[in-house]
Amino acid sequence: MSKSLKNFIKIKNLVKEYGYKEIRLLFLLHKYDEVMDFHEKSKDEIDTSTQKKTSSMTEPVEKVKRFKEFFQNVKAVLRQNPIEKDQRWTKIDTVRKPVTQVWIFS
């Protein structure tokens, strides 16, 4: 992409179109030491004759959608089964036991 060829995309415009979560995941999924060749089309739609590794927005958009669904499911489960009392770690007995007594395998 180059500015002189008019195929330059500003991050500000991408955020308006997709959202900041999707853009953040796009950069996190991309290796830092490689050049990013960005296409808005999916990887399957891009011409394979160039054999270049490209980045598209389909993967980050799908991952953000999965994250949202996961956390909605977690909220639903917590609403159905509310935590009635505080859950805290308990102290381990100060008496040392042999490993065979501590770990019970079934």
List the helices and strands and how they pair.
Elements: H1 11-17, H2 20-29, E1 38-39, E2 55-56, H3 58-80, H4 99-102
Parallel strand pairs: 1-2
Helix pairs in contact: 2-3
Supply the key terms.
42% helix, 2 strands, two-stranded parallel ribbon, single chain, 106 residues, mainly alpha, 4 helices
Note down, in words, how this protein is organized.
It is a single chain. The chain is mostly helical. The protein has a domain of 72 residues. Helices cover 42% and strands 4% of the residues. The protein has a two-stranded parallel sheet with strand order 1-2. Helix 2 crosses helix 3. The longest helix is centred in the middle third of the chain and has 23 residues. The N and C termini lie far apart (59 Å). The model has no long low-confidence stretch (mean pLDDT 76).
Structure described in brief:
With 106 residues, the protein is mainly α. The chain has four helices and two strands, in the order ααββαα.
Structural class: mainly alpha
**Helix percentage range:** 40-55%
The helix count comes to 4
What is the CA–CA distance across the termini? 59 Å
Low-pLDDT residue intervals, each spanning 5 or more residues: none
User: How would you state the average pLDDT, rounded?
Assistant: 76
Q: List the strand order in the largest sheet.
A: 1-2
Oligomer: single chain
For the secondary structure, the number of strands is 2
Major beta-sheet overview: 2 strands, parallel
